[in-house]
Amino acid sequence: MMLRPGTRVHVKNDWPETRGPCHIRTPHYLRGETGTVLRHLGDFPNPEDLAFARPAPKLPLYHVRFDQPALWHEGRAGDEVVVEIYGSWLEAAL
Fold first, then answer.
1. pLDDT digit of tens for each residue in the chain (94 aa)?
2. The whole model's pTM is what?
3. In a domain, 3, yes or no
4. DSSP letters along 13-34, please?
5. Less Cβ crowding at N or C end of the chain, within 10 Å?
């Protein structure tokens, strides 16, 4: 699923590290949070597989914007955090 700029997305609230060894590129503080897609950066091999020398399918990578005060309860209205997140961690926000 290709996400368009402006799409509201929810970062999956998943914790694969509780199920065994893994390599995760999604920051803990974003899991379960909602943001907005800014742009598609391209499709790249999944680093979560590459870290273990497994076959790595290409996944879309996005810049996603989050409201900083909502994440950390500090900052001013309009402050934002922009993070690169692979599409496998994103789902459409309701």
1. 789 999 999 999 988 777 777 778 889 899 999 999 999 999 999 998 898 899 999 999 999 999 999 999 999 999 999 999 999 999 999 7
2. 0.89
3. no
4. ---GGGGSS----S-GGGTT-E
5. C
Quick one: tokens of 92?
């459409």
What is the greatest pairwise CA distance in the chain?
A: 43
Q: Closest Cα partner for 65 from 25, 37, 33?
A: 37
- Environment class of 12 (CB within 10 Å of its CB; exposed 0-12, middle 13-18, buried 19+): middle
71-88 as b/e, with b when 16 or more CB fall inside 10 Å? beeeeeeeeebebebbbe
Report the CATH number at residue 60. 2.30.30.50
